[in-house]
Design brief:
Largest sheet of chain B: 2 strands, antiparallel
Helix content of chain B: 55-70%
Structural class of chain A: mainly alpha
Structural class of chain B: mainly alpha
Helix content of chain A: 40-55%
Radius of gyration of chain B: 23 Å
Oligomer: heterodimer
Order of helices and strands of chain A: HHH
Distance between the termini of chain A: 38 Å
Distance between the termini of chain B: 53 Å
Number of helices of chain B: 22
Largest interface: A-B, 57 and 72 residues
Strand order of the largest sheet of chain B: 1-2
Largest sheet of chain A: none
Radius of gyration of chain A: 21 Å
Strand content of chain B: under 5%
Chain lengths: 98, 552
């Protein structure tokens, strides 16, 4: 599993950002909630109804959930190690105190 | 003036005052030591965590106008109005990887506006100026539209008078807004967004429980809408076969446009780090769910037999609340809409002011401006922008703002090749970007000019600027299908940009120096190059000016 970042092998100097990459095979998952809600024929129908709601309406609201699930999944799978995230949080506090 | 509902008025005024006090107090919130600095004033110190960013972006992207206009569209046009849902579903996965690159490069290089980025990335002051002008022109009518939301509420409370007396509440509301953004910058809307969202969610939850039970259930509501929209052989509560492509392209085009608006970018840059943004891309769809339910208020109004005030379709939601809720709760709902207008209006005026100050004033009018002068100009500009919005609503037909906002979506899309693609590649030549922008603008404006507004019976109500869905038959295709004009214009823009790039590259025309490095785009908060508060004046390399900051 590829993660969002790999610690650089060379030493981090004071004025250079480490070389990282946002690339990950997990990112391809993001295409699902982009493409599916745009294929109108899948949901452009009244039946099957759900609690009085035509398919057109309830299925599109279900797609909201699809978007949430995929972005959460991609975020968690490409997340940086906890130590790095803590370093970022510390940097925020440091800047606020300065 | 007609009969003013005193209970509603008192509740709206009290909540409005609470918010105004919060707005002024916001200057002290989260310890802003020196507001007289553009980054401090315009980006809130760039240190907003996950929750504040969620409220801020939510308040920024889902505006009061949306909450009023989307149900109005559902009421008038049926299923087509529901495009707001797929639009706000596809947007987050679409920009998930893009906004974090923008955040990183902006925090390394000290960019406050999209035009700052374009100037540095493509070494092109011309393209930066075009991006700045496009952003300002697209944002101005958007601010004016927030007033349309407030004025719909005021009409429902009973302010039906015309002329100055009738508009006075609107003027007062916007003056208060103008004053506290002037003193508190981006902190004011961030703080007010909490109140706005609490009120909006409360209203929606109550509305989707109370109204359907009063109307006899969701089956009744959809049944009434079905009856209305299937009359005369209509498609009922789904899209006609010829409307599907238009629906999908409008959703996609609107999604591509939203994060190009300067106010969205201002909200993104105010986040404290990349993880905050990524988490928000998963959390913001909660608003989309709310928006879907709000859209259905339009169908509830059909079922309840609600009638808009006069010809103003935007009053349909306030009128429905008036009809369904006791006065005290209608007052809370109205306050939610009115306060909901203030958050985006404040952020939009700040974003427009940043664009003017950094990319027009400092670039072209006064190159040696100090950071104090810059901050002052930004503040005054944000005042002027808001006064302009009030003037536009008072002196011009509100329909003019609605038309302009429609065009705004089409033109802001023309900045996509330089702003969004620019985050990934520098292959497009700076000259080609300008050429593509010009071609896309001409094509887009021509298309929206050619779109007539039709009456429900099919006759032409207005020959031009009647919408954004462009009939392909105008291009000679034998079809009834229509497509979102903005997306077509973007296609023209991209084709021209690619062709001209190929020519310019073949002719070996100089394409300038990239002011950014590859590592900038993935920089994380803890990196030494990432700055919280870059000094816009500093010409020193990034990371070297920490000692000379004016802050604390």
């Amino acid at each position: 599993m590829a993660t969002a970042s790999t610690p650089p092998s060379r030493p981090v100097t004071d004025d250079v950002a480490p070389r990282r990459s946002d690339r990950s095979p997990w990112n391809w998952l993001l295409l699902v909630p982009i493409v599916v809600p745009l294929i109108v024929p899948i949901y452009n129908s009244v039946d099957p109804k759900l609690g009085g709601w035509p398919l057109f309406y309830w299925l599109q609201l279900v797609f909201v959930g699809l978007g949430v699930v995929t972005t959460v999944l991609v975020y968690r799978m490409t997340r940086r190690p906890a130590a790095e995230r803590e370093a970022a949080a510390r940097a925020v506090t440091r800047d606020m105190e300065r | 003036m007609g009969d003013i509902n005193v209970v509603e008025l008192v509740i709206v005024v009290v909540l409005f005052l609470v918010v105004a006090v919060m707005g002024f107090a916001a200057a002290r919130w989260r310890r802003a030591q020196s507001l007289m600095h553009l980054d401090e004033w315009g980006l809130g110190g760039r240190s907003f965590g996950s929750w504040i960013t969620w409220f801020l972006l939510g308040g920024d992207l889902y505006t009061a106008y949306t909450f009023v206009a989307v149900p109005a569209l559902m009421f008038g046009a049926g299923a087509a109005g529901f495009f707001a849902v797929p639009y706000t579903v596809v947007i987050y996965p679409l920009v998930f990887l893009v906004v974090i690159r923008l955040w990183s490069v902006s925090h390394v290089r000290g960019f406050v506006t999209p035009a700052d980025f374009v100037r540095s990335r493509f070494d092109s002051p011309t393209m930066a100026l075009l991006v700045a002008i496009t952003g300002i022109v697209a944002t101005m009518p958007y601010i004016a539209l927030q007033l349309v939301g407030i004025s719909a509420v005021l009409k429902s409370i009973g302010f039906s008078g015309s002329g100055f007396a009738g508009e006075l509440p609107l003027i007062i509301a916007f003056l208060v807004l103008a004053l506290y953004t002037y003193s508190s910058g981006l902190r004011a809307p961030a703080l007010i967004a909490f109140v706005k969202d609490a009120l909006i969610y409360l209203t929606i939850i109550v509305a989707v429980i109370v109204i359907p039970s009063k109307l006899g259930g969701w089956g009744e509501i959809f049944g009434a809408a079905e009856a209305k929209f299937s009359a005369n052989g209509g498609p009922g509560v789904i899209l006609p076969a010829t409307g599907q492509l238009g629906y999908a392209t409008l959703a996609l085009g609107s999604a591509l446009a939203l994060f190009l608006y300067p106010h969205s970018i201002t909200g993104v840059l105010a986040a404290s780090n990349r993880d905050v943004l990524k988490r928000n891309m998963s959390a913001l769809p909660v608003y989309s769910l709310a928006l879907g339910l709000i859209a259905l208020l339009g169908f509830m109004a059909i079922s309840a037999g609600t009638k808009p005030i006069g010809t103003d379709g935007n009053t349909i939601v306030p009128e429905l609340f008036q009809q369904m809720f006791p006065s005290w709760f209608a007052g809370i709902a109205f306050a939610a809409i009115a306060i909901g207008a203030l958050v985006p209006a404040a952020i939009m005026s700040i974003a427009a002011a940043n664009l003017f100050t950094r990319n027009i004033y400092k670039e072209y009018l006064k190159k040696d401006a100090t950071s104090e002068q810059e901050a002052k100009v930004a503040k005054v500009t944000s005042l002027v922008v808001k006064l302009g919005a009030v003037a536009a609503i008072l002196f011009l037909n509100p329909q003019f703002s609605i038309d302009l906002q429609l065009i705004g979506g089409v033109i802001i899309l023309q900045t996509l090749p330089s702003v969004a693609l620019g985050l990934y590649t520098r292959w497009l030549h700076r000259g080609a970007l300008v050429a593509g922008w010009v071609a896309g603008m001409v094509a887009g404006l021509w298309m929206v000019y050619e779109i007539p507004k039709l009456n429900p019976d099919g006759t032409v109500a207005r020959a031009h600027f009647g919408g954004s869905s462009f009939a392909l038959s105008k291009l000679g295709f034998d079809t009834k299908v229509a497509v979102y004009a903005g997306l077509l214009a973007l296609l023209v823009n991209l084709v021209v940009a690619i062709l001209v790039t190929a020519v310019l590259r073949a002719m070996k025309v100089d394409d300038g120096v990239d002011g950014t490095a590859d590592t900038d785009y993935t920089a994380e908060r803890e990196d030494p190059t990432v700055r919280d508060l870059p000094d816009p004046l500093s010409s020193a390399p990034p990371g070297l000016d920490k000692e000379v900051r004016t802050r604390g």
